Structure formats: structure tokens, C-alpha cells
Amino acid sequence: MADESELPPESKLTRSKERWAREGKFLTGRVVRPEDQRLPPGQHLTRDWPVLDLGLTPEISRERWRLDVYGAVETPLFWDFPAFLAQEQRQFVSDIHCVTTWSRYDNQWEGLATRDLLAACRPRDTADFVVLHSYDGYTTNLALEDFAAEDALLAHSWSGAPLTREHGGPARVVVPHLYFWKSAKWLKAIEFLDHDAPGYWEVRGYHNRGDPWAEQRYSD
Ligand SMILES: Nc1nc2c(c(=O)[nH]1)N[C@H]1C(S)=C(S)[C@@H](COP(=O)(O)O)O[C@H]1N2
Ligand SMILES: [Mo]
């Protein structure tokens, strides 16, 4: 973990953490649901891993890949792949829920936890939303709290191997508690905003938040 003593005492992040603590998060360090509530309504399990995209698969080598973190943050970040890999590495296991009704259990991810990214870039008080920008032109929006979920990460590996190009390599976001369209592949930039800014699918009728357990598939 980053040295939190370096954070300003009343930063956005520390206040969010205090609120999460009040709400009972951080108790297990892992999001665990009872087995009978594990599969969200209207979903079915699949063993393979389908590929969904806009019809183009950008080819970004690890050498060419860059990540920009900017907007309402105290410390903008501009990382190449080695700088990204030099951050704290974590492994998470989580389930995928796609709005097209397939779910896939027990995906092993490795990368940078969004919590650790937030400690590095230090969102300003005014930052309440993030927009993820991808190399294929895709965007998706998240409330800062959803982006900061304890099992959310910027993943570069899956099942112990580099993320394949079709699944979003060199690096993608994974936000397991929301439908998978929120998990941007081929991540290029993370923009912090004081206002919401619906992304590619959100302006085309998908729900703004996308909670699978509430079946937030499409907006009304
Ligand atoms: N950059 C980018 N990210 C994206 C998409 C996309 O088209 N472009 N599709 C989204 C959708 S709708 C889904 S369901 C998942 C699919 O991820 P997968 O192909 O690894 O299963 O990626 C999400 N992230
Ligand atoms: Mo999707």
C-alpha cells in the first residue's frame, strides 16, 4: 500500500474510506456473497469466455502502451508499461456478469487495485466520477465509489498469463460488481470529473450504473 501518511488529512480518499468503513466495507477485504446469491437474476453460467467488442481490436504492444490519469486529481499520472508494473501488484478472483446474460465464475486477475491507483493520483474533493477511455475509442463512466470497489483493478494478467489482445491487453479495467461493459478493455486513460459523463453504451440506452443484482441492464 501507498504510505497514507502522505495524504492530506482531509482528502477525498480518506473521507471515502471513512464512509466505507462506517458502511461495513473492508471487513473481509474481499467481496463475498452467499452461493445462492452469487448468480444475478436472468444470468446463466458459461465456462468459456466470450469476446465482445465494437468490431475492432486495437493492437497496442506493451512497448507502445501508455496510461494517462488526469482531470480532478492532485497528481496526474503518465505511465508506460514498466511504470505501471512497478506499482503494487495484487491478485483478485472475481466473477464476470455480462449484460447479454452470460456469467463466468472465478476469474483470476493480476494488476493494480483501483484503491492503490487512487492513493497515487489523489482525487480532488470535487471528483465524483471517472470516465475510462480506451484505445478503440470506447468510453464508459463510473461513480468514483464504484471505481474504488475493493475488488476493482487495472488488470494486465488473467489466469497467470498476460491478458490477450482480444480480452483487452495490455491492460483493462475490471469492476466485478457491475455489468462487464463497465470494464473497459485496452485502457488508455482515466479521467476524473466533478460531473457524470455517460459513455459509449450509456448514451445508447444501457443503464448508467449497471448493477447486475438489481438487473440494471437498460435505461427506461
Ligand atoms: N475498449 C472496450 N472495452 C470494452 C468493450 C469494447 O467494445 N471496447 N466492450 C465491453 C463489453 S459490452 C463487454 S461485455 C466486455 C467484454 O469483455 P471480453 O471481450 O473480455 O469478454 O468488455 C467491455 N469493455
Ligand atoms: Mo457487454
Automatic annotation (TrEMBL):
PANTHER family: OXIDOREDUCTASE MOLYBDOPTERIN-BINDING DOMAIN-CONTAINING PROTEIN, PROTEIN-METHIONINE-SULFOXIDE REDUCTASE
Pfam families to which the protein is assigned, alphabetical: Oxidored_molyb (PF00174)
Domain Oxidoreductase molybdopterin-binding: 57-201
Organism annotation: Bradyrhizobium oligotrophicum S58
InterPro entries, alphabetized: OxRdtase_Mopterin-bd_dom (IPR000572), OxRdtase_Mopterin-bd_sf (IPR036374)
Name of this chain's protein: Oxidoreductase molybdopterin-binding domain-containing protein
Lineage: Bacteria, Pseudomonadati, Pseudomonadota, Alphaproteobacteria, Hyphomicrobiales
